[in-house]
Here is the input.
Amino acid sequence: GASIVFLHGFGGTRLDWLPLAKYLKDRYRLVMVELPGFGTSPLPDPFSLEAAADQVDGVIATQNPGSTIVVGQGLGGFLALRALARHPGHARGLVLIDAALKSPIPVEDQMVQQLVKFMDDNYEGFSKLAFAKLGRDSAESAILFAKMAAVEPATVKAYMRNLLRADANGDLKALDVPVELLFTGRAWKGDQTWGEIAKRLGYEDTTIAVPHRLVSAGTLVAKEQPDSLADLLSAYATERFAAAK
Here is the structure.
């Protein structure tokens, strides 16, 4: 039947989607993917974002392309976008949740070198600065920080080195299917405009339809608002699969 492929965010696992699964399992075949370097999924060697995206596509490509949509959160969204841009025709649609396309601030080589040195010399300090406040509140931040602490430092360093200067705007333009954007209250504060959010998260094309918002949710959206998220995904899937007929 119709499939939805889920890609978790930085520090997450495929199990993060389980609270959402019960709302969708009777209508779709659900494929929950472990990102390269997370859980039991190996990190590509040598590592590159392209290699990681190709590894993700290895799962997407096993589905029926005419009845599959891909849902990616954060890092999972970035890799899904790159995978579908590099391998067109493997899905009918893409949903990005809280996904950034690039850093809004240009990162010079010297800054990258300094950050890499800091990660190597003081990984614990780097982790606290980078990942200690990822949640909507202190309780959620503590949960997310514990999840990040369980990720192998080699995985974190590999992604960080490459993401600092990565830009997925070209991938978005090359995409051969419509993309649906969704942001939680963690990424899109209530007093900000879409233009402000687009700039902060690196979206150069601000003519994209204004994204959906789940204001009362954060990084753990699949647990916090599974019913609302399921409704949005089902509506998008129905639209995309109908267009394929």
In short: The chain has a mean pLDDT of 93.
